[in-house]
Amino acid sequence: MQTLVSFKNVIVLSGNFPILTGLDFEAGPGEIVLVQGRNGAGKTSFLRAVAGLLRITRGSASVLGVDLVANPADIRHRVGLLGHETFLYEDLTARENVDFVLKATRSDTAKASSSLSSVGLTGRLMDLRVSKMSAGQRKKVALAALLAREPELWLLDEPHAALDSWTRDFLDSALNSRVAGGATVILVSHESHHGSLVPTRVVEIGGGKVIGDVSGSALRQVDPQVTTQKRSGHVA
Amino acid sequence: MQTLVSFKNVIVLSGNFPILTGLDFEAGPGEIVLVQGRNGAGKTSFLRAVAGLLRITRGSASVLGVDLVANPADIRHRVGLLGHETFLYEDLTARENVDFVLKATRSDTAKASSSLSSVGLTGRLMDLRVSKMSAGQRKKVALAALLAREPELWLLDEPHAALDSWTRDFLDSALNSRVAGGATVILVSHESHHGSLVPTRVVEIGGGKVIGDVSGSALRQVDPQVTTQKRSGHVA
Amino acid sequence: MESRGYRWSRRAIGIVSLLLVAATVILGLWITPPDVVQGQLVRLIYVHPPVAWVAYLAYGVTSIGSILYLWKRTRNLKWDLLAAASAEVGVVFTGLTLITGSIWGRPAWGVWWTWDARLTTTALLFVLYLGYLALRRVPADSHQRAVRSSIAGLIAFIDVPIVHQSVVWWRTLHQGATVLNPSLSPKIHGEMAMTLLLGFISFTSVYAWMLMHRYQIAILEQKVLDAELDQLIEERRREPDSESRQARPTNDVGNFDQPSKV
Amino acid sequence: MWRDALLIATKDLKIEFRSKVTLNLILPFAFVVLIIFAFALDTSPGTLQKVAPGLFWLAVLFSSIFSVDRAVAIESDDNAGDGLLVYGVDPGGIFLGKVISVFVQLFLLEIFLLLGVVVLYGPKIGGWLLMLASALFATIGLCAAGVTYSQLASGSRAKQTLLPLLLVPVVSPVLLAATKAWQDAFAAASSLEDPWLRLLIVFAVVYLALGAIFYSSILEG
Amino acid sequence: MWRDALLIATKDLKIEFRSKVTLNLILPFAFVVLIIFAFALDTSPGTLQKVAPGLFWLAVLFSSIFSVDRAVAIESDDNAGDGLLVYGVDPGGIFLGKVISVFVQLFLLEIFLLLGVVVLYGPKIGGWLLMLASALFATIGLCAAGVTYSQLASGSRAKQTLLPLLLVPVVSPVLLAATKAWQDAFAAASSLEDPWLRLLIVFAVVYLALGAIFYSSILEG
Ligand code: HEM
Ligand SMILES: Nc1ncnc2c1ncn2[C@@H]1O[C@H](COP(=O)(O)OP(=O)(O)OP(=O)(O)O)[C@@H](O)[C@H]1O
Ligand SMILES: Nc1ncnc2c1ncn2[C@@H]1O[C@H](COP(=O)(O)OP(=O)(O)OP(=O)(O)O)[C@@H](O)[C@H]1O
Ligand SMILES: [Mg+2]
Ligand SMILES: [Mg+2]
Prior knowledge:
The complex is a heteropentamer, with 2 copies of chain A, 1 copy of chain C and 2 copies of chain D.
Chain A: E1 5-14, E2 17-27, E3 32-36, H1 43-50, E4 56-63, E5 66-67, H2 73-76, E6 79-82, H3 94-104, H4 111-118, H5 135-149, E7 153-157, H6 165-180, E8 184-188, E9 201-206, E10 209-215, H7 218-221, H8 224-235
Parallel strand pairs in A: 3-8, 3-9, 6-7, 7-8
Antiparallel strand pairs in A: 1-2, 1-4, 4-5, 9-10
Chain C: H1 4-31, H2 48-70, H3 77-109, H4 117-136, H5 142-157, H6 159-169, H7 190-237
Helix pairs in contact in C: 1-7, 2-3, 2-5, 2-7, 3-4, 3-5, 3-7, 4-5, 4-6
Chain D: H1 2-19, H2 21-41, H3 45-76, H4 80-86, H5 91-121, H6 128-154, H7 163-186, H8 195-220
């Protein structure tokens, strides 16, 4: 398997606190990796590290063939990150925000409108300032920008949160078609049900490192739904 | 049925834009109302209106026997609202935040610690500033404050988002026990699966008004999963 | 931890500094003659200018350390620690400059302080490096701190030439360039010049000694931090839910009320 | 109301103490204002002492705009202001709490600043009592008007901060009166009968009363 | 880099134009500074004109701190700064873009303020050209140093705003030089050979260069 993302014993600090504590991870092209783990385990930090936004203190890491330790800046514009934060400017409209992202990434700005309408932001919503939007609508703006950019590697942090069920389904099928076209997806999610987006692999993070990795055929038996129920069974 | 929440033809404006457009809604004690609807339908605004945070321009509304049009201030401290925003102070620690909420609502501050540990914020996490916390940990702090307050009416806007599966289950069972003790819950959610928290009623909001209301026995047939699929079928 | 050679050279420099300062004091107070105009006051000249120049020197070292850190090929945390140590000593010497200047100013000008250009810019120099030290105290990981403070240190250095040139640019009350003038020909002579030179050497030696001391402490602090970090990493790796759920014994699962350490 | 006021004031001061925005931002600025002026005006030594009160109160005005803005902004992060309403905190209490917290910060600042003025400008100060009294009431007036207007400007959620546009004309009489009172004090007119002091008291009372009365309506929006 | 700079500058100016924070906040304040001084110093007409340049540049310094802070804060809402990095925008471009946007705002402000100075203080202005040139370069220096330091202080996520503590000493030489240059200009020394102007040019170039070189390290750090 060709490796697209490769983390070896990666340690990342925030101030003096170790967020990632020796994380090992590999992923190849065309995978849909579902990252799970308790709150505060380090999932968001992992995605940010893959995007080149966190400095790697120890260990080695490369993404899309770029060495993250030496030149993290070279990887950033090639990944698409959708996090808890949407990176939007409140005082700009949906269209202006998407336009800005496309211009900044040197992508085709012509796609802005069609991408916005594909997520359901049509008519007045296109020219509404983000500050007036509902939580789901904001997320959609960020999503539209991402869809228009077509990154090679998608890093999605709870992408379904705040989206209505129609948009969830749309996102799932959009991602599926991107993966079919050769893209790779790493997504974090706490939800047990993921519609049509079926992960090829489930990775579990705990205490800043990978503590479980189930892929391929083994996945059928240990699907997230089942582990969830097992877990809740324990608690009750 | 005794009514706890009663909205009659309620219109709410934001600037010049009508967010709620003649909404009718009634709920009695002990109900678990699940509110659904597309992004931007007005769900969050509905919850905020019930909490007395939005001025009702036309129509009549009362919550817990208080007239919302005349004196919205009298209702606020009797409801517990957990929204997209968590109302936390970034520079205070988890414990200080919960303490502040309990003092402000004149509740028993002794419960702060136990409530925080019940959601899993123990040890160092209790004294960590909220600004350093992960998304789920922040939500847990807000949740801990709410659990310690024990409001009569719980207004939850996508409470499960960002929580890990264990905390989701914990929240569900905590809510169930509150409802058994006489509390009422109105929750907004886009997720199709809700663990052990079974709604007694599903209300659908669209375009700022109620467009569907299924309760009691009828619920078994029309569970959210099914309606979701029906809807996405229309669009596709 | 501290290498033997380092320790010995540090001690040697300490002793030499002591001797040099003693020699300067003796020469300055008893051997050299009083000035025609200023009388006994002139003796401050063996302290005040050297102290100011050593402050410049210290900030120069800070800048070099900063550049070496910022330049990727020579990047090493040691350069940053050196820069910081030197800045701290520099602040001390700037403080001494201000104090000796004030003491001199009282009899010479009749005031402790006046809004003269040299004085104002020297005060700014003091504040600039205080800011540099304040910036270092913002919690951040060591690399981040090093980058930020290196940049601040470099920019702050711009004020040094300004302080030096201030007597030329503004018409000032303060003494013009007597020694370090553009033509590099000192306007004082004989034993006074010699004593001044000795003063300069002895304060430079004091600076070197203080720097080595401070730097050593910084290195040790960094080692402690690194050791703490290893421990923190171990702790985080052992966080309550950091083992695979499937592998965990049933009674332990999800019970947050249990103490986290197993 | 007083209980709530205390609660809010404690919390705000705690946050302020942690983030130190106001102190770090304002104190050095205020000092540099003093230094630069001293440098620019040094040629005529009399000027410096004449300008001192005006400079002092100008620095305080700047600081008050800033810290009043901060005090209200604390509640707009993560929409905490809605939180306060939901918790049932008395709006009058919120107002008073914020006034208290801003007052404490400003008063501390004024003490430091005065030390700076005395050391750097060396004015002769005749009427300490008058100075203290006028500082007290001027600061109360500034804080009360500031908190009210700041809420007025930000509460609308339209982030257009109209604050200074609204605030500055309202507090400039206070500022002028304070400057005049201090000039009198510097000129050794120690009497508390000073007309400017009386004006300051009137302003303090009026702004406090107006704020306490209208704050709840502003919050309700 | 220039493309990115333009993109950022356009966006920032658009946001600034919408929210009008800077203009609403600063302009009135700057005017009050002028008015209060006019009021406080009214007795000696000569003083006013002598202080005018210092006052003017002090007001500009204040404004620059504020708008530079805003320019950097725009990117910290919703973590948009990380967004810029992810989009692969050139850090040098971000720096230049922000300098341009702050420069435009400050220069506009200076025009208004100058009108105010002329109307209120009525100084005789001899060297318009010198004034314009020195204002230009002084503003560039202010903006460049300001944006750099603002990022230095804020990016740390520790919200402790060290900004003024760091920035004010760094830009005060600029401020002093600008004041001196304007004093020369007021005194009708119209020559562009003014040594203060040369100093201002040096500062502008040095701060611009340092900012452009180091901005990327600051963002990465
Ligand atoms: C607080 C007051 C003072 C401060 C901050 C101050 C600062 C300085 C500084 C920074 C220098 C080094 C300049 C350079 O060579 O680049 C210096 C040099 C010197 N200072 Fe002062 N000074 C003060 C008061 C005085 C007084 C009162 C006198 C004597 C009347 C004096 C006499 C000198 C002399 C003779 C030099 C050597 C100048 C040369 O050869 O370049 N200073 N001072
Ligand atoms: N400066 C710090 N001091 C102490 N702890 C810190 C600091 N910075 C980060 N942390 C901790 O590091 C972890 C960061 O985790 P991260 O945000 O990656 O979690 P996550 O897996 O995405 O969680 P969630 O599911 O809640 O989103 C949290 O546990 C947080 O408390
Ligand atoms: N000033 C305004 N101008 C125009 N539209 C506005 C304005 N204020 C609010 N809106 C619209 O009102 C609606 C508010 O909806 P609300 O936040 O209640 O939605 P929601 O149902 O909670 O959506 P979500 O599922 O995305 O959270 C949105 O469609 C928003 O675009
Ligand atoms: Mg996360
Ligand atoms: Mg919503």
